[in-house]
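Quick one: examine this chain and its backbone structure tokens and tell me how the chain folds. Here goes:
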Amino acid sequence: MDKQISFLSTYNFTKFNFSNLKKGKEKFDLIYDSKNFYIQIIYSKKVNSSWMKNDTIENVFLLKGKAILEDENKNIIKMKKGDFLTIKEELKHKINWSSRKCIWIALHHK
């Protein structure tokens, strides 16, 4: 007998209501999780974050908005809708600025 395969759940990131998110805050939605890989949708509203450091490689896509990121080496990355960035594990980084309605998809893997 063949094994039945079905779809996983659907997720529509465009339905997020930014009016429920306070200025300077982010909301993280975990949409997939496995042992060595997970996917997040991140909503940002005028964020200026503190330093972050991941224990995974992070591939981040900016789906909506604009943002300015900085790494521990003082490299500045200006991102706009459609841009992609790979952040190596253990690299300290932060968001210096994000627009009022930013939507990111982040793929984390070992």
About this structure: The chain has a mean pLDDT of 96. The longest strand covers residues 25-34. Residues 67 and 76 are 10 Å apart (CA to CA).
